[in-house]
Q: What sequence folds into this?
C-alpha cells in the first residue's frame, strides 16, 4: 500500500471526548478508526448521511467516511481502503489532521480516531459499501464547507448525533482552513 507524503505541516488536533449522552457501564472494546475528509477539485467534501434506528435510537446525521483499522493495516492503509469502499474511488492522502479518542457508552466502546485530509482522484462518487455499519449510510454527497456547517448545525443536539458532531466538526473546520492551500487559492 502506498504511504502518503506530508506536504503541508501545520497544527494537528488532539481531542479526548467523553460520552455524556448515555450512562457509563464500562468499556469492553477499543477500536482504531481512520476517518477521511476527502475533497474534489472544486473543494467540495464527501459527507455521508447516516440514518439509523437501533440501540442509539432513531436518528439521522452527517458523518465523514471512515471505519475500523483491520489487522495488518496502519491508519493510512485503512483510510485509503475505507475511502475506496465508501466513496467508490481512490484518494490521495495529503496530511493527518490529528486524533480524537471518543467513547460510546451504549455499546461499551472507545474509538481511537485518526483524521486525514485527502484529495479524491476522480470526479464524482460511486457506492461500494461492504461492512455492516455501511448499511446505515443512506447517501453520500459532495458538499461545500458552508453546506457542511449548515448540515451539522441542523443535527440533533442529543444522542449519537451530538457525539458525532463533537468528534467531527473540529476536524472539518481544520480541513476547511487547509483547502485553499491544496486548491491553489
A:
Amino acid at each position: 500500500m502506498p504511504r502518503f507524503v506530508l506536504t503541508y505541516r501545520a497544527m494537528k488536533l488532539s481531542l479526548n471526548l467523553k460520552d455524556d449522552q448515555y450512562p457509563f457501564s464500562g468499556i469492553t472494546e477499543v477500536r482504531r478508526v481512520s476517518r477521511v475528509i476527502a475533497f474534489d477539485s472544486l473543494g467540495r467534501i464527501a459527507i455521508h448521511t447516516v440514518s439509523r434506528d437501533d440501540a442509539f435510537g432513531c436518528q439521522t446525521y452527517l458523518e465523514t467516511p471512515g471505519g475500523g483499522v483491520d489487522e495488518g493495516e496502519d491508519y493510512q492503509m485503512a483510510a485509503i481502503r475505507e475511502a475506496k469502499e465508501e466513496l467508490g474511488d481512490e484518494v490521495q492522502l495529503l496530511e493527518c489532521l490529528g486524533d480524537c479518542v471518543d467513547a460510546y457508552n451504549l455499546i461499551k466502546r472507545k474509538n481511537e480516531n485518526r483524521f486525514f485530509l485527502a484529495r479524491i482522484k476522480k470526479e464524482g462518487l460511486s457506492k461500494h459499501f461492504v461492512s455492516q455499519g455501511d448499511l446505515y449510510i443512506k447517501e453520500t454527497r459532495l458538499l461545500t464547507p458552508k453546506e457542511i456547517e449548515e448540515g451539522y448545525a441542523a443535527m440533533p443536539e442529543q444522542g449519537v448525533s451530538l457525539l458525532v458532531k463533537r468528534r467531527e466538526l473540529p476536524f472539518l473546520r481544520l480541513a476547511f482552513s487547509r483547502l485553499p492551500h491544496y486548491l491553489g487559492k
About this structure: The longest strand covers residues 91-104.
